[in-house]
Amino acid sequence: MSRIQSVFHELQAAGRKALIPFITAGDPDGELTVPLMRALVAGGADIIELGVPFSDPMADGPAIQRASERALAGGMSLSKVLGIVRAFRAGDDATPVVLMGYANPIEAMGHGVFAAAARDAGVDGALVVDYPPEECADFTAGLRAAGLDQIFLLAPTSSEQRFRDVAKAGGGYIYYVSLKGVTGAANIDFDELACRIPRVRAAVDMPIAVGFGIRDAASAKKIGALADAVVIGSRIVEEIETSPRERAAAHIETFARGIRTALDEAAGATP
């Protein structure tokens, strides 16, 4: 059983939902990323999505775009992101880490080299926004051979055929995009989600994580009532952006703990 599967199995047994925060590797600088990851775990994160900065994102809103620009200006690269994961693993062998980003850096490194290097660094999965399941069979096979999960996106516009494609190719969990737009938007239609999530669940035998537009405890609670996991990215990136560097880790630990507490209270669960 993979680290990702183990986390969801344990949470389900306890009646709890997964908290999956996102941060961008190298923002505000490479030296602070591991302390930020550890702070998120201390605050109750179950899985960490670590963004690989890219210059031309398609799905990221302004906050994450700015984070990528800062990280790239500081010299962050895919190889250095893997080094960050390796350093994180030196003190944490339990928390799953999923790399989230775009195809270009992986293509530049090479599929096989990336899969092996990610495995050796301690990565558990990859979510590559511009690798749809019908176009990345070789990459998916390479990740599986390395023991890594490929997480795919589903959206309000996804077809029933896409549900089936993702069910066949994906692993770990499904990332369901809560709205039509980019990260950080705040126009979630909870009624539509309540209709769509059961349809996804009927087609895909994996945990469902919902992200995009979740910014506080109230929206996290609503999502937690529908899905298996809540993904929060832009709001955390904004908190890092506006915090003094020396207080950023403590600040996001407190923020994460507030979301964790809200999710557990909503479910009537205890840690």
Q: Can you tag this structure with a few keywords?
A:
alpha/beta, TIM Barrel, 12 helices
Provide structural commentary.
The protein has a nine-stranded parallel β-sheet with strand order 5-4-3-2-1-9-8-7-6. The chain has twelve helices and nine strands. α10 packs across α12. It has 271 residues and is of the alpha/beta class. β8, α10 and β9 form a beta-alpha-beta unit. About 2% of the residues have low confidence. It has one domain: Alpha-Beta Barrel (TIM Barrel). The radius of gyration is 17 Å and the shape is globular.
Question: Could you outline the blueprint of secondary structure elements for this entry?
Answer:
Elements: H1 3-14, E1 18-24, H2 30-42, E2 48-51, H3 62-73, H4 78-89, E3 97-101, H5 103-109, H6 111-121, E4 125-128, H7 137-145, E5 149-150, E6 152-154, H8 160-169, E7 174-177, H9 190-203, E8 208-211, H10 217-224, E9 229-232, H11 234-242, H12 248-267
Parallel strand pairs: 1-2, 1-9, 2-3, 3-4, 4-5, 6-7, 7-8, 8-9
Helix pairs in contact: 2-4, 2-12, 4-6, 6-7, 10-12, 11-12
